[in-house]
């Protein structure tokens, strides 16, 4: 076999030489036919930067000396979360998985073929002073000599920090470890590195400790890399995936365009630790640093792989590729990990692997991962192992089933992109008008040439109702609402049966230009489901009342619209319906949030003589409970005489839509639609809804 | 130093033991104080799948035997692009860079520590018949015995294929190489693999050769992996980044849900090779395979890193993570590479590295890259080297400066996401209503409850003009347009000066819900720039005419709107303006595409006695040339008496916006705005525009 291959090899080569004899395209074959040239021997030394290098590892048992001084028995049972065992557990799992060869787990120097031990040393004063104030350093330098009482007093005074006589040593080692890890990467002694250090650093501001952090390790390391390697390290990207905002790191580089700081963290309007507004999306840097600070502030906990990967692919990676850092440092808290009771998020170990893998593609692979928070010992160990495996060259493990990112996260990411689109080309194709001020602009009347779109849409409805169906306005007195809020058919006063349609502004289907971010009016349509209801009512000779409830401007919960709906319905009942002479049957059709007006009326007035049924199409809008002010049996009555159509995506069905969670009776008879979206729900259930009304009106004899 | 460390190590350990003596949280430290336990020795065999394995490489000189039979001298000078040297050049660059240790470049078996040679064999009949028809196999099996004339005849008959007596051997080897490479990955003999094979495969359909391809190598390999490893290979993702659509591969798995085929390619409405509609975004698979075929069809050439990375992060990676393949095969043509004259795109070698790096994160790293097209020998060599380096474990090189993705690509990706959002959860947060049929739906009147948004917006304008400024309609007779197209101020008949504002439907600023994809009417506003123009005119006691030109439905070039604008302007000139008794000054303000009506009028009628100037705000809309039908001097006159404000992003400034390309005189005096977007242009230039009108009307004496 080998012989045959060899023969063929030769003939193949000669074939090529022959073929290309007259061929001018290629240099390497310009020799004339049959003149033998020596074969060009390629240089064979691998031109590889990293494949032959190990991954660096910083670990030193002395960083475990810093510990909270116990003052009560309960602290033994429920130890402080920033526990000395954190770094030990990470080192242990690396050893258990063979990444580190250290059978005694004592932190030896020779740790095998995969990782290279980077000796940890204390950060020097001058290194620390690159970021921190002299006062802060001097304060910490006094702690080794303090008495137990003094230490406890300082612990009491600080913002979530503790001190013992070893704190200063541990903090200097932690900081020095971060520096040495970065240095080994920058100098090319390792391909990348992981610093398993504590106490953490990212909450330590230049002038004070905080949030379990004494020195701002990553900031000190970054600052010193910029200083020591001005040629090879001009730009650094710090990615902080700790669940808390890295206020200290942000502060250290807020005015610096050499360091791009990106933090993904729980923010919750500033209520989550560190509890300030500095972690909000609109903190984008200052002066020269404007545009070089990017906060991705989650509005809630409970997020996981889907949201973090979304953030990476939509924001972090495009931005970093544009920034082109020379070094990437990860402020790697593992408190967003599944199982961390402080972070309450669900990032899987393999997701940490995937994120690490993505970051490896930056900065020619110059990546240094520095431990920050993370308080479940099991979770941080598993997460750190996943990161370390990817660092040494393993592919990340397959992700557990990826879910759809939560809408809260989607909205956060959208806001961040809009905000940053001012500074980053990669987001230009994604911007919605001009950035952060959009919502503000949209609700301000900055000029009298800006008109709310919903007014125009209502005008469209009015025109149709008036011209096609001769509707007239039904006045609302002293309510401060638009004249066109309630319209009714001309026969309404004398009708026996009235159909009342209470609705939000109709849906608009629109395409947004990727280029300008604006809506293209030529392909946008208003989908007005109410028209079908009204036509159906008129065909059956019912009186028809159309009530439009515009949505609230600038209110998350649509509060004032809901209030308006409630007031209008009660007003119409008290001032009109009660007095209509022939009226004996009323059916409500509520569409969207406006249906809350119907539920409110049915609980606040006894309408049971006349009202026969209430149908609602709520899509993904919240359910509204009937509050039975008249008597207790109202909720039962409502359940029997209502249909509430909710889309499968409505949160009332539980978090994943598959639970057969059943809403309670006070919400009416809630039915799940197979389709999604108001219009689709409506198409699916229109016949069921109208049949229900006919049934309630006892009109089957007429119609069938 | 070592001594100190050791001592500290011990004391640290004992410290921990002491500390955790009373600690119930952790299992490993539950022994009582001072009772020594043996230290737990972790198992130290690395639990690593890939780090210790090499990357596989398929290469065999016999695949160079397949070559075009030369029939004229010119084929020596300009050889067929699918040239036998393609695979040699790739092998050579791997050797030159030390990835392969083969000084003679003859394809030896022992190629060093980084890559493992995978011997190439001929695919068997039964393997090939997994995808291809018996007729196709039998036809190719006859080619070794054919005469030169027969071969030339078959070459003539085929669709861009050629044959010689070695074609069958080379094709079987190429196909067998793909199979063996995949096999080595699946069996874990290598960490991943690269098959440097030819002839390529992805255009070969089950029943016929085509596009330089004889057997559908990747399809045959995939099909056989599914068959041979039913336990470990249940799902395969094939990513085809060749610049051409892989019609053969698509066809092989169009009804198969086990293979997700994703292709990124030039399509150009089906005009680009292979020249059919099968590569369009709406080809999403059939039957069980519905949703498992994804085409990303570029509408043009000239694309590069920005667009490919965008496609990866927005579409490919999310989709693949959701699919969770067991094996990823890349149909790796390098004809999208910078320098390829057939592909005319600009994907850099490092971008190929980045894309490979991303794919490595899937399927536990089970990745096999199989060569397809790519016709610049230099480009394919550099690209393949970048891919190979990432396969063996190098980080991808830094990208050249990443540009903003082109709007054509953004739109393509949007369309693909909308189309696929029906099948993939990951796109749920990104969908615009329900998928592929959106545009169709938007322009159909599927029910009489759908109304074009632009009608509602015009209604809003009419209401304002009538109620605030007492405007009346100016009738257009026999033009088949809406009554409300032209409105005028009551004084228009007697005015000496008239300002005519011709505009598109105003801009809408809107936020789209990430969750439902619908527009939120409560925060959407109509930004009607015309109001400022009209108010300014009325304040100066001019007559004012407002002309609304709705945009064309479902037309890319807005053709019918442009025609309407032209007809309306001519009609108004011929039937009104010419006969107004006192009129001696007219100024036009054109906003958007509608300004083409003004340009048309000024070229088709001699309006110079009365028309003093024409201002246009066109944002990113196309320039319109004046066609001087009346006399040749009109273009000069237009240049002197016009201002055309275009945004900096308008394509009239050349492709990157920085050229000082100057539009020609017939387009009027075109000025670049600093701002972007119609509304911003308008705010920036409003004073300049009105000053220009005052100047033209010689009214400075009055106003200053």
TrEMBL record, chains A, B:
Which stretches make up the Arb2-like domain? 452-700
Might you report a single GO cellular component term? Answer: histone deacetylase complex
Q: Which EC class is this protein assigned?
A: hydrolase
GO MF terms listed in the record are:
histone H3K14 deacetylase activity, hydrolytic mechanism
Q: What are its E.C. numbers?
A: 3.5.1.98
- Can you say where in the cell this protein is located? Nucleus
Q: Which residues form the Histone deacetylase domain?
A: 80-390
Keyword annotations: Chromatin regulator, Hydrolase, Nucleus, Repressor, Transcription, Transcription regulation
The catalytic activity, as recorded, is:
N(6)-acetyl-L-lysyl-[histone] + H2O = L-lysyl-[histone] + acetate
| Gene3D superfamilies, sorted | Histone deacetylase domain
A Pfam family assignment: Arb2-like
Protein origin, superkingdom: Eukaryota
Gene Ontology biological-process annotations: epigenetic regulation of gene expression; positive regulation of macromolecule biosynthetic process; regulation of DNA-templated transcription
Family under the similarity heading = Belongs to the histone deacetylase family. HD type 2 subfamily.
What does the protein in this record do?
Responsible for the deacetylation of lysine residues on the N-terminal part of the core histones (H2A, H2B, H3 and H4). Histone deacetylation gives a tag for epigenetic repression and plays an important role in transcriptional regulation, cell cycle progression and developmental events.
Its recorded name reads: Histone deacetylase
Q: Which organism is it from?
A: Lachancea meyersii CBS 8951
